[in-house]
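Aminopyrimidine aminohydrolase
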Amino acid sequence: MSEQFTDRLWRKVQPIWEAYLDHPFVKGIGDGTLNKEKFKHYMKQDYVYLIEYSRVFAIGSAKAPDLETMTMFANLLHGTLTMEMELHREYAAKFGITNEELEATEPSSTMTAYTSYMLNVSQLGGVENAIAAVLACAWSYNYIGKELVKWPGAADHEFYGNWVRMYSSEDFTEIAENCKNLINEYATGKLERELQALEDIVVKTSKFEYMFWEMAENIEMWPTDKIQSTVG
Ligand SMILES: Cc1ncc(CO)c(N)n1
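Tokens:
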């Protein structure tokens, strides 16, 4: 089989994605030692992240040139709002956080920067930009999930096991594979400079993913929070 666009992308992002597996937050999920306050912060930020991420699927659906692509985006949107975000609602319940409180989470600087970037690039250009914007998200989480599930005890951990099982699951793998298939389909026949632009989106979102793990590990909101201010 000839080389796919995702093979080329993989070579570009591999060093960044391998660093996720080496990140203390991700390793903490895998070996079950992660501090729960860090995970709680992550869950809340990730929930509001997923709301904006869902909007990118909606933009992709609106821009889709045919019903097959439109349906694909609609399914990805539905899968995120139901299956994936249900995981967050379940964890929130364990922390005593209601769905309303979860949805009203104040966004951190990293979450705001990342989702603003994704939404911006997906409003520009064609449907392929929306696919590129979400690709590293779905694919890298599946990559992490499929790696962590091999760690002894990770999938059966009483607290973090649900997370590991979700992102390594067949359903989530299908989400990631659908995103990969879409980008390969839309990359076909594109000019090198167009492929370069898509690659840039996937690399940037991969960097934002790393920042998201950092934000979670350090329980970050806004760097300016330390400034005494009455502005709020
Ligand atoms: C930050 C982030 N990226 C990707 C995913 C996977 O959908 C997620 N839940 N959160």
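The chain has ten helices and no strands.
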